[in-house]
Amino acid sequence: MKVFKLAAVVALLVAGTSVVQAGATFESVKKKGFVQCGVSTGVAGFSAADSKGEWKGLDIDLCRSIAATMFNDASKFKVTPLTAQQRFTALQSGEIDVLTRNTTQTLTRDATLGLLGAGVLYYDSQGVIVKKSLNVKSAKELGGATVCVQPGTTTELNLADWFRANKIDFKPVVIEKLEEVVNAFVAGRCDAYTTDKSGLASTRSTFPNPDDYVILPEDFSKEPLGPMVRQGDEQWFNIVRWSLNAWVEAEEYGITSANADDMLKSTNPNVQRILGATPGMGKNLGVDEKWAYTIVKQIGNYGESFDRTVGAGSPLKLPRGLNQQWTKGGVMYAWPIR
């Protein structure tokens, strides 16, 4: 009799491990009815307000994807614009639920800030932009130059590392707000401006005469940009991580906003799981079974968003490069939804 009781207890414990344990952030987001995302103060193509005050961009679409997962409605989100120095404090304090601002995933940020990176949205590298009139073809020609940079960023650290490694002297001009640092560069307060190359391309596109500026060829660093959440709430971490993975994997399997309904009839077991035709994945996350279907139907897959916001269909026209699917020469490789 004792053997049967023990077996019953073990069975209950094993069954319990599959039950989603609601976390504080998850419950808070559910209760208030929207996702609060921390975004940049304005980077064209990634997160910027249009003439109507509506925020758009690749980072915004990620925020919308999380809202779609939580509420089956991609419109249930709000944004908090944050500078590089404000972003981590805002997340740590609970002012925002998730940081979808262009933020580099690093060991130090995972290990010392009480935060966690939840995946890579955009693979980038740091570079430098100068005026063509400077007649500079390489960053190695910038000896003695002044370089505008924002504080509290990996950009500031990478800048010092690269120039030190190449034994080149330079003078940093440190300015916190993006708009102010860009204005300082355009006004000639510094010879060069450095940040992620996607940011440089975005900024250049807003200049009155973009062709007067050139992004130099050197890559100062690796910059895997992605969302971050607070540590201690695994369910919310999973919501953010798998919203991103579903977005990427939908593109891999050819699921688009236009064909999502037809793809519900697919006999491909991977597609069935992604779209919720085969139930279970939503239950594992604690959300509706059609969570990934909703992301794709309302926003499009990762490739659709990329093209619309920063790629071929946008003013930036950035190449996919490393952000192409792994099956097409890039490194975008989603974890499987199964």
UniProtKB/TrEMBL annotation:
Signal peptide positions on this chain: 1-22
InterPro entries: Bact_solute-bind_prot3, SBP_3_CS, Solute-binding_3/MltF_N
Keywords from the named record: Signal, Transport
Lineage top rank: taxon: Bacteria
Limits of the Solute-binding protein family 3/N-terminal domain: 34-263
Family: Belongs to the bacterial solute-binding protein 3 family.
The protein's name: Amino acid ABC transporter substrate-binding protein (PAAT family)
Organism, as annotated: Jezberella montanilacus
